[in-house]
Amino acid sequence: MRDGSFYRMRTRGGDNMRNMITWAIVALLCLQSTAWAAGAQQHAQMNLVEVQKIKSDVGKRASDGRPAKVKLKDGSELRGTLTNVGDDGFSILDAKSGKQTSVAYADVKSVRGTGLSTGAKVGIGVGIGAGITVAVLYALYRALSHS
Fold it and tell me: Which of 78, 118, 125, 144 could form a disulfide with 70 if both were Cys (CB 3.0 to 4.6 A apart)?
């Protein structure tokens, strides 16, 4: 063992361990880049679904011809009539200023009507009905208690 064979054996074992660690790191980096690519593809698919929904909402609102409220992803808001609906975007015409603004579907967060929602209208109707019912019952109570 004095000829250095023990030292060479230890060094070779160390080289093998270093090689294994190097290959393990390379494999982990490859797996990580694959995960990043899959995440990016999923994000692109979600954006495509969002754009399709916005496109559908814009088409419905534009066919009605009624004013709409468009919220953009940068936080700004546009109100007006939707016009020039195309594959990549649409225009919104502000009735007050007469200014027409072009908007890409990818920049839109939501599209809504400018009036009350259906839930709000139902709530108002129920409130009015309940008020009338209470008033009629009170009038009947007063009429019957004085008899």
Answer: 78
